[in-house]
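Re: that backbone. Tokens:
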């Protein structure tokens, strides 16, 4: 019996004793579970170390079980390790095989061998990729302050988030009648979620609504009392809702000025039946840099077979048209419920940059062979609390690429858009994911939409995230912010936020060809629409996400290792294009633009092997040398 099943297996660049393994292939729907056995070779024998049975999504119904992912653990020691997968098929599949009564229905796949040398126990990317002095990490954590803005009687306060210290909730409940009588306290986690190890960062998070009978001054006074409690870690208002389209709107104007008016195909009835042409030539962000455009050097790695296979991407945006002709019937696309679908054009454009099918028409996604999990920024449960955070925590595994195309704002300065890391709960979840080994990106966002002297903003200009007092810097969560650059010269777009203290990368914020919006091709409905002017940090974020997914895919498939957020950023910064400069300033305001081919060549040079390694001279030449 032959099944289309393959295994990807990997450990961190610095070996920590953990091996990660999962299954890919067209026959995953036939699998009930996979048992993974970890052993170490010792002389002529094998020593048992660990074993895990992972259910499949086909059996459990849970998207988190797609591919039967598992982590196997041992002491971090050098040696030769063997992982043996044992595949159990669904009962319906076993019955269709008509096996003998005494036949063994477990499929034992060939052993997966990983050799760990002593150097892997302590090596760092930093050993081979020096951090430029101009980009040194500058840490600053602002203490959480809580000021209650005065509101007129015609408005109501948003929900109040309460985060208790360990044991604080029990103490609060004992004192509740004296501290907050008549107030209903709602936990972030529902009863069935409270024991889930992946969600523990939210276990001490609660919220309260302003009662209809309570005046604004009374609720403000209550908020102040709660913030002063000794067992309270943090009190904050629920972030205000801001429209997702602003991530894109300013850049659409810029792109129209650059490209002129689009020739829209399909506005006439007799054109509806015409097939969609191949628009891939318009995806110039895939090209290596030239005189006209400054691309990300992606096509050459495609030619070498690097297309995202083995990588997992989690992308949160505004919704999706899942039946778009360039996305439909794609087994690698997983839409995570619930969905609000408030901005499906926006989410479809982002998804197209990542996963549009390589089918000879329309667009082709940067990492079109990867697995893509799509989340809705506005997904909420029946109580109105965000489900996106919980879903990301539940489904993200080490080595996954996570990107959040979401914006927020400071309730005291509703004149500029800010990255999700401004909100402390999003920051805490991000830190949990990066500590787990994921690479997490956030849109840096498009800055000020209104001039306000008191806030220090100018309309259509980004804000300096290292100095603007209304951006909350909670410290280094190991995340990467993504800024927007010009397509034609790689310089920063003026609307993009910049100077995040820890990590930034950038990509095109204009003239991005992808799915949706109908500016390039406009057919009936939404499922055959394409655009050539997606932009802003909206477009930059999925472009960088796709680039990093290709790099991670190659690291996993070629070297059986993954890069965490800091390792990935150092590699991409060293090999990337340093075009995004500002006059009279040495420091890059939004980091490097990824050079995907250069990053793979540099990684192979560090590891002294691989498809892009040039052993003759020991270096990889101009492509992976520091750019700029």
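Recovered sequence:
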């Amino acid at each position: 019996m032959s099944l289309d099943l393959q295994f990807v297996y990997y450990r961190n660049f610095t070996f920590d004793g953990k091996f990660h393994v999962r299954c890919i292939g067209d026959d995953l729907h036939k699998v009930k579970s996979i048992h993974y056995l970890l052993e170490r070779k010792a002389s002529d024998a094998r020593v048992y170390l660990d074993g895990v049975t992972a259910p499949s999504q086909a059996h459990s119904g849970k998207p988190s079980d797609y591919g039967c992912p598992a982590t196997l653990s041992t002491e971090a020691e050098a040696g030769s390790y063997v992982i043996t997968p044992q595949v159990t098929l669904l009962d319906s599949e076993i019955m269709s095989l008509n096996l003998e009564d005494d036949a063994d229905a477990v499929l034992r796949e060939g052993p997966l061998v990983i050799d760990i040398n002593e150097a892997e126990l302590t090596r760092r990317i930093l050993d081979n990729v020096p951090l430029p002095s101009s980009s040194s990490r500058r840490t600053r954590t602002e203490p959480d302050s809580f000021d209650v803005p005065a509101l007129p009687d015609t408005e109501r306060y948003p929900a109040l988030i309460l985060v208790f210290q360990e044991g604080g909730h029990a103490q609060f409940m004992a004192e509740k009648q004296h501290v907050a009588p008549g107030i209903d306290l709602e936990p972030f986690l529902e009863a069935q979620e409270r024991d889930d190890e992946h969600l523990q960062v939210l276990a001490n998070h609660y919220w309260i609504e302003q009662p209809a009978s309570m005046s604004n001054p009374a609720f403000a006074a209550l908020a102040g009392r709660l913030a002063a409690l000794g067992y309270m870690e943090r009190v904050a208002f629920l972030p205000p809702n801001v429209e997702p389209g602003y991530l894109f709107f300013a850049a659409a104007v810029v792109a129209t000025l650059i490209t002129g008016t689009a020739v829209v195909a399909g506005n006439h009835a007799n054109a509806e039946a015409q097939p969609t042409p191949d628009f891939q030539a318009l995806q110039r962000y895939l090209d290596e840099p030239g005189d006209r455009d400054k691309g990300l050097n992606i096509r050459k790695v495609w030619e070498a077979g690097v297309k995202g296979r083995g990588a997992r991407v989690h992308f949160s945006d505004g919704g999706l048209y899942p039946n778009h002709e360039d996305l439909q019937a794609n087994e690698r696309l997983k839409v995570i419920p619930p969905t609000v679908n408030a901005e499906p054009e926006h989410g479809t454009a982002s998804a197209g940059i990542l996963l549009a099918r390589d089918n000879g028409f329309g667009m082709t996604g940067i990492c079109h062979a990867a697995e893509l999990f799509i989340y809705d920024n506005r997904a909420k449960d029946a109580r109105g609390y965000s489900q996106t955070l919980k879903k990301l925590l539940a489904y993200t595994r080490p080595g996954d690429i996570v990107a959040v195309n979401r914006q927020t704002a400071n309730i005291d300065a509703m004149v500029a858009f800010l990255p999700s890391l401004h909100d402390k709960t999003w920051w805490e979840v991000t830190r949990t994911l990066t500590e787990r080994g994921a690479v997490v990106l956030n849109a840096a966002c498009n800055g000020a939409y209104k001039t306000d002297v008191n806030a220090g903003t100018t309309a259509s200009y980004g804000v300096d995230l290292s100095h603007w007092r209304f951006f909350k810097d909670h410290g280094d969560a190991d995340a990467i912010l993504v800024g927007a650059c010009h397509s034609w010269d790689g310089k920063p777009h003026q609307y993009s936020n910049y100077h995040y203290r820890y990590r930034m990368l950038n990509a095109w914020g204009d003239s991005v060809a992808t799915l949706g919006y109908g500016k390039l091709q406009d057919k009936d409905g939404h499922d055959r629409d394409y655009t050539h002017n997606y932009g802003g940090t909206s477009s930059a974020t999925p472009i960088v996400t796709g680039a990093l997914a290709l790099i991670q895919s190659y690291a996993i498939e070629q070297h059986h290792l993954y890069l965490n957020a800091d390792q990935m950023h150092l590699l991409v910064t060293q090999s990337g294009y340093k075009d995004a400069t500002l006059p009279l300033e040495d420091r890059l305001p939004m980091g490097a633009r990824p050079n995907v081919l250069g990053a793979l060549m540099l990684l192979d040079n560090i590891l002294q092997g691989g498809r892009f390694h040039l052993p003759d001279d020991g270096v990889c030449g101009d492509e992976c040398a520091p750019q700029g």
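The chain has three domains: 6-123, 160-237, 246-265+282-624. The chain has 14 helices and 25 strands.
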